[in-house]
Amino acid sequence: MTTLSDEQLRLAFLIRVIDKERKQLAVTLQRLFNAPLTPERLQQLDTDPSFSEQLDAFASRFARLQDNLGDKLLPATLAALGEHKGPVLDNLNKAERFGWLESAENWLLARQLRNKMVHEYIEDLQLLADALNSAANFTPLLENFAMQLISALEQRNLLPSNSF
Fold first, then answer.
1. Which SUPFAM superfamilies match (predicted)?
2. Longest dimension (CA), the chain
C-alpha cells in the first residue's frame, strides 16, 4: 500500500474542491444567463429574491473558483513540480509561459470584474450588467486553467489515482 504525502493529499483535496466549484459555477451560469443580463433585467434584484440569490451565487462562485485556482492550486502545483513560488503575478506569468493559462493579463481583468461584482453593483446597474456579462465570458478561462493545472499534475503522476 502506498502512503500519500501531505502534498499529494493537499493537491487531491484542492482538485476535488475546484471540481465541485466548476460544476456549481456552470449550473449557476446557465440559470442566470438564460436571458441577457441588462440593467433593465437587473432592476428586478430588489423585487425577486431568487434572481438576487442567483446573482450572488454567480459572483461568489466565480470569485471562489478564481481564488482557489490562483491563490491555492497554482502555488501548490508549482511547488509539486519543484518550481519556485513567488508573488501571484509572477506565478500567473509562469503559468502562462508553461501554457497552463491563456493570459495572465486576462486573469487580472477577471479579478477586477470580481471586485466590481462584489462591491460596486449596488449603485450602478449598467456597471453590474457589464461586469456580470464579462465575467460570464471569462468563465472558460477559469475552466481551462483548472483543467491545465490538473493535467500537468496528472502527466507527472503527482496525484493519487482517485483524486476526483
1. Nucleotidyltransferase substrate binding subunit/domain
2. 60
> How far apart (Å, rounded) are the C-alpha atoms in residues 123 and 73?
34
Q: What is the SS3 assignment for 5? A: coil
C-alpha cell of residue 22: 466548476
Digit-coded pLDDT (tens) for 66-82: 999 999 999 999 999 99
> In total, how many domains does the chain have?
1
Domain that holds residue 107: 6-32+45-155
Determine the length of the chain: 164
Question: How many CB atoms within 10 Å of residue 58?
Answer: 24
Q: Are 28 and 61 in contact (CB under 8 A)?
A: yes
Whole-structure pTM value: 0.90
Q: Within 13 A of 132's CA, how many CA atoms are on the CB side?
A: 30
Q: How confident is the model at residue 164 (pLDDT cuts 50, 70, 90)?
A: low
DSSP 3-state of 14: helix
**Does 54 reside within a domain?**
yes
Cα–Cα nearest to 58, from 46, 45, 71? 45
Question: What would the grid cell of residue 26 be?
Answer: 456552470
